[in-house]
TrEMBL record:
Domain Peptidase C51, residue spans: 11-131
Record-given protein name: CHAP domain-containing protein
Organism in which the protein naturally occurs: Gluconobacter vitians
Length: 160
């Protein structure tokens, strides 16, 4: 009996830790099978391939581009030394002029994150420079990341 009581607090912590979790973990490493581009492609139906940063150029003439976020659109991050292949996130909803919630994969290695805050820090309020929530510090990350803007998940031909 005392053995059961000794492990009861640990069991309760594990159960409570699973409640309300907005993260999914994978055994994948940063360059492993869980990547942002395939995750976004599967969730949105966009017919784009290759690195996330190349999606902006590939989508010209196929999908709409904007600098104003709407749910379901894809925020495309430029390639930088910190994110050499770029990054893509799906807009879940806008919560203020300069903050949206996104779903994305592998921002933190091996994880799918949902309802993650992203804040526009661009001088023109055009979403070309953003800061992203960083769960390990429970705050927006200190680095700002350049973006191209948003791709609509609807074909241009379908929108007409």
């Amino acid at each position: 009996m005392s053995r059961v009581l000794r492990f009861l607090p640990l069991g309760l912590l594990v159960i409570l830790g699973a409640c309300g979790n907005r993260y999914e973990y994978s055994r994948a490493s940063f360059n492993g099978p869980l990547q942002c581009a395939p995750y976004v492609r599967e969730r949105t139906g966009l017919r784009l391939s290759g690195t996330a940063a190349s999606w902006w150029r590939q989508s010209i003439g196929r999908y709409g581009h904007t600098h104003a976020p709407r749910p379901g659109e894809v925020l495309v991050f430029r390639a930088t030394s910190r994110v050499p292949s770029g990054h893509v996130s799906i807009v879940r909803r806008q919560i203020s002029d300069r903050t949206i919630l996104v779903d994305h994969a592998n921002w933190e290695p091996g994880r799918i994150d949902r309802a993650v805050p992203v804040t526009d820090v661009s001088a023109r309020n055009d979403w070309t420079l953003v800061r992203v929530w960083w769960a390990p510090v429970h705050s927006l990350g200190k680095r700002a990341y350049p973006t191209y803007g948003f791709i609509s998940s609807q074909d241009i031909d379908d929108a007409s």
